[in-house]
User: Fold this.
Amino acid sequence: MNGLYEELMGAIYSVWHRRWIALAVAWTVCLAGWLAVALIPNAYESQARIFIQLDDALAEQVGIGVADKKRDIERIRQTLTSAVNLEKVVRGTRLGNTIASPSQMEQAVLQLGNKVKVVSQEDNLFEISATADYRSFSDAENATLSREIAQKMIDIFREENLSGDKGDMVETISFVNQQLRQREKELESAEQRRTAFEAQHPELAQGGVAVVQRLDASRTQLRDVEADLIAAQSALAAMDGQLSSIPRTIPGAGGGGAGAALSRAQADLASMRARGLTDNHPDVIAARNQIAALRGPAAQEAASGSGTPNPAYSSLQSIRAERQASVQALLARKAGLQSDIASLTASAIQDPELATQAQRINRDYDVLKDQYDKLLQDREELRLRGEVKTGREAVKFQVVDPPTSPRKPVAPNRPLLLLGVLIAGIGGGCVAAFALGKVRSVFATSAGLEKATGLPVLGAISQHMTDSARALRWRGIKLFCGAGAALCGLFVVLLAVEFIQRGTVT
Assistant:
């Protein structure tokens, strides 16, 4: 601990012994540092915030979704700091007054690109910040210039957001109109070719579509008639089966006997089936058993020659005749359709090249017509989207915070830099004095000398000064303190000048 104390005291003595050197170094460092700090221009920053409303029911109804708007706004944000827009800012502010050549404009755009920032704080809230620290302008002019740059960026944002899409939409509609005119000429040429061909070959009107459509319709009708014929023949076969199981006459005139009972049982069975009862129903099974039991006695009565005509048999006979007539009509319809199909097929095969040419002309016309109709629909949709975007987005752009007028610079922190230079100057002077003492091998204490030489030190002689020497030394100390106080006073003066300059900007 004593050794550390002696080292500290030795260092202090070494610095104090060469205090004028330390003071000279401090003055040199402070003057150079303060001059460098004074040459750093003040940077003034202006900030603004803008709000873009994204949700709109009408825009979504016509197909302008929130995703499309976000993409457009992101595109505008990215292109807002492009070289073209920054050149507009330079020409629209006082920066353009000093531009005399393209190289100067390029340099000004590059510098401005590092001083302008567009930050998206939220999905639809943007912050624009502009910094001005040009040496050719005063602090007040830089403060005003930063606000002008921020305002110009807002104007460009509004122009890009409102009129930029409108210009793109106008160009798109113009391109679509040009394509429409071209398609219209091609469509008219195709229509003239089709009209001339149909005038020479009316049987192949519309590319032979009539023949093909008739052939397809006849084939479809033939399939339907064949299905109906199969159903009618099945119904006729079922009717023949029922007729074979019903007797032609009923024995007994009074409605009695086995024949009459059989007729009643058969009528009951038919009624049950008409009600939808299946063959597994108990009533149906009982009726069938009763019919089977009555058939033998009814047959014996019929063999004896007695009885009256069976009304059920007569009714079924008339139904069979109707179904048979329906089968004959379907057979005739089938034969007619087969004849039409054969005739249409023969006419189509008669000149296949001509039919192919007709189909090709008609196909070309249909393709051009579809393209023209689609382009026409797209143009109307684009026009509606453009009217909605240009007519409604004007109220969705809002400046939340207008560009601020900076009252103090954001950089550099001159008071802190001035203080740092003062501390660095004082520290540099002390280090220089201490290093000089080490170079000249001066010992502040006898213990240091004994340690350095390794020889014992018998004693030390104190310094005795005369009154004149003491007065001279005291005057030197006063001068040193005055020079140090002058250094600190200069620091205070520089701080005062800095705050006075800020006051003039305000």
The longest strand covers residues 44-52.
